[in-house]
Amino acid sequence: MAHTDTLTTPTQAIIDLLKQKWKTLGLSTPDDIYYGDEARYLRYPAIAVEPTSLGAEPTSTQMRMTNTFIFYVFVYEGSLKNQEVKRKDRDERAEAVRDRIHTDRTLGGLLAHVNVTNIEPGISIVAQDHVLATRLTLEGISKTEL
Q: Of 3, 87, 109, 121, which is least surrounded by CB within 10 A?
């Protein structure tokens, strides 16, 4: 498969990769994985894959471009008011998402390489509620013809 220079194709590939093993990620249904961040979620935990940026730089050889991608994967655990969500559980789910993504570091050949470079636990506001969340940063590279 040829490398891509679009954000949509690898974003969907990440979603498809996660949906293949949704049960091992502790989700209720594969529909708990979303393309892009949502204003509200039907239930928690939920995962949103957000395409963030695409940069392109020409290389010096053979009229090729090096494309750099950044994606965020948000793992939402539930309301801050819900004391049942433990920090260790949050960390383990985020690590399970990272490990799943790392099972296919080229996203089926769409990219030369993709890697989770950062995992940041925190709090997000969803539907006017404070939600426990973890953001994974994914960085990828592809090479395409001009």
A: 87
Whether the pLDDT of residue 105 is over 70: the answer is yes
Chain position carrying tokens 């940041």 = 120
**Token pair belonging to 100:** 């799943």
- Asked whether residue 138 is assigned to any structural domain, the reply reads no
- Domain span at 79: 8-127
This prediction's pTM: 0.93
Across 100-124, b (16+ Cβ under 10 Å) vs e yields bbeebebbeebbeebebeebeeeeb
Q: CA dihedral defined by 144, 34, 133, 101, rounded to 10 degrees?
A: -40
